């Protein structure tokens, strides 16, 4: 189902006349062509000047990407600008990559298509491992039938995890919506993915070179950059670090990933070393440092789509909610589709007030715009979302919106047919739980 056809990443905002972003409305199609022409003339200039100073590596890679794509799309010239990226990409597509996708299905009709397009299709050799608790949104995972390689699909009924003494000593319930239990559930999800992956490896007799761990509720605005893979170093996004390390995405080789993903089983070690009062992010950092695993932070083009409400404007320890239309990279900040309420000088103001090592997110002039997330998602968010992602991805949102139990079961059958390991309640149950209002789960 040609997810790859007509990719329009860099230009997506500009191609939508219905885009909610005010500044674009006066520009006609013709004007856009002129602007684009101007843009890639500038890109070429930029490239020439930069290659002279041979400091390509210092440009943020998403800028390189954007420039490269604009040039290719318009057939001006083959972009030497992206040569290093292309080389790295071809190396990676010859390696073994596992993508661990964890968490509740929530708004998967919005996030799933972007994950398919910008991670799985981008690295067609990658095997997908899904680990997700059953809830009324689980039926949306049927969209994974559009993934090319599904190694393992697991949807389970969540049960309380007994809290051990060492867990209670090491972890704190502060700032976790569901206390220590919430943390344990999350750690269990992450480590569960590692367990699934290891059993698949044992069966097949190989080891993955790379593991990309990402969340079901992340919306990717651009492809995962091939320059995010470093042997011996765990890569995490900057910002949203809550005293430790941002744990909303992680990329690493097999050995570093084992340390990073063993979130439950390393707690006794942290206990022995005397750690207490850890939240998810500080525990994550302690895990890596105590195992002498080095890490680096690298901006990444995704955000966590959230239905939660937050005070606006955020102050000090408040959580900023970015507009999904932000240019980014948002590096895992919370986001929702909205008409931005805080841009320019307002953003600068808010960012100055946020605690740097807590909920602060990296930004530059114009890269992030904020929503007022004190209420529900605003009226008309669907149209806004479609305008941002374009018709190609929006049709998956519509597919889920129009889905009935029969279609859902059919899609799951197709998905199961291409999945090596399947562990989930019957299709009928997953589908009716979300789509049949008369259905009650009496298990
Ligand atoms: C990974 O760990 C194994 C076992 O500890 C070791 O033999 C191997 O050399 C390590 N691989 C890399 C790339 O560091
Ligand atoms: C980490 O390095 C320290 C100091 O070199 C060493 O004592 C410790 O055993 C190492 N820890 C692990 C888990 O390798
Ligand atoms: C930020 O961008 C706006 C509009 O592009 C510009 O007017 C303003 O001067 C910029 N501010 C800084 C600090 O660069």
Can you walk me through this structure?
Residues 1-22 are annotated as: Disordered. InterPro entries: DUF7796. This is DUF7796 domain-containing protein. By secondary structure, the chain is α/β, with parallel strands linked by helices. The protein has a domain at 95-296 and 391-431: Spore Coat Polysaccharide Biosynthesis Protein SpsA, Chain A (Alpha-Beta Complex). It contains 14 helices and twelve strands. It has helices spanning 29-52, 61-73, 83-92, 108-120, 165-170, 179-204, 254-261, 267-272, 280-290, 345-353, 381-389, 391-401, 405-417, 427-435; strands spanning 97-102, 127-133, 150-156, 210-215, 218-220, 233-236, 249-253, 294-297, 302-305, 321-323, 333-336, 419-423. The strands form three sheets. It has a six-stranded mixed beta sheet with strand order 7-4-1-2-3-12, sandwiched between helices. It has a four-stranded mixed beta sheet with strand order 5-9-11-10. The chain has a two-stranded parallel ribbon with strand order 6-8. Strand 1, helix 4 (108-120) and strand 2 (127-133) form a beta-alpha-beta unit. Helix 1 (29-52) crosses helix 2 (61-73), helix 11 runs antiparallel to helix 12 (391-401) and helix 13 (405-417) packs antiparallel against helix 14 (427-435). The model is unreliable at 1-32, 34-38 and 44-79 (pLDDT under 50). One 2-acetamido-2-deoxy-beta-D-glucopyranose (NAG) is lined by residues 365-366.
């Amino acid at each position: 189902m040609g997810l790859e056809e007509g990719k329009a990443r860099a230009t997506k905002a500009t191609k939508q006349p219905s885009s909610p972003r005010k500044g674009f409305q006066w520009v006609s199609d013709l004007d856009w062509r002129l602007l684009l022409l101007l843009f890639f003339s500038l890109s070429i200039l930029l490239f020439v000047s930069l290659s002279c100073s041979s400091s390509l590596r210092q440009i943020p890679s998403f800028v390189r990407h954007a420039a490269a794509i604009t040039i290719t799309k318009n057939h001006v010239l083959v972009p030497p600008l992206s040569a290093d990226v292309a080389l790295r990409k071809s190396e990676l597509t010859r390696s073994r990559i596992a993508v661990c996708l964890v968490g509740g299905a929530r708004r998967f009709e919005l996030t799933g298509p972007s994950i398919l397009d910008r991670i799985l299709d981008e690295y067609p050799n990658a095997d997908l491992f899904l680990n997700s608790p059953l809830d009324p949104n689980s039926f949306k995972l049927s969209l994974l039938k559009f993934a090319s390689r599904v190694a393992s699909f697991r949807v389970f009924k969540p049960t309380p995890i007994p809290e051990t003494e060492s867990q209670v000593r090491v972890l704190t319930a502060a700032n976790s919506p569901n206390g220590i239990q919430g943390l344990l559930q999350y750690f269990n999800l992450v480590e569960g993915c590692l367990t699934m992956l290891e059993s698949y490896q044992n069966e097949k007799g190989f080891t993955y070179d790379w593991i990309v761990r990402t969340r079901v509720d992340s919306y990717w605005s651009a492809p995962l950059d091939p320059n995010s893979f470093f042997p011996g170093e765990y890569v995490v996004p900057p910002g949203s670090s809550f005293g430790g390390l941002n744990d909303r995405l992680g990329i690493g080789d097999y050995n570093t990933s084992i340390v990073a993903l063993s979130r439950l089983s390393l707690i006794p070690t942290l206990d022995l070393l005397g750690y207490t009062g850890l939240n998810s992010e500080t525990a994550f950092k302690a895990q890596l440092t105590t195992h002498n695993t080095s890490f680096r932070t690298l901006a990444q083009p995704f955000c966590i789509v959230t239905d939660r409400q937050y005070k606006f404007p955020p102050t000090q320890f408040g959580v900023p909610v970015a507009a999904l239309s932000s240019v980014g990279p948002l590096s895992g900040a919370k986001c929702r589709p909205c008409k931005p309420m805080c841009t320019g000088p307002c953003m600068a103001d808010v960012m100055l007030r946020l605690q740097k090592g807590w909920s602060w997110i990296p930004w530059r002039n114009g890269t992030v715009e904020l929503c007022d997330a004190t209420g529900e998602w605003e009226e008309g968010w669907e149209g806004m979302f479609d305008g941002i992602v374009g018709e190609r991805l929006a049709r998956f949102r519509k597919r889920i919106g129009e889905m009935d139990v029969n279609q859902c079961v059919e899609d799951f059958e197709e998905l199961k047919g291409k999945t090596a390991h399947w562990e989930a309640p019957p299709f009928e149950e997953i589908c009716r739980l979300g789509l049949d209002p008369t259905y009650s789960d009496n298990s």
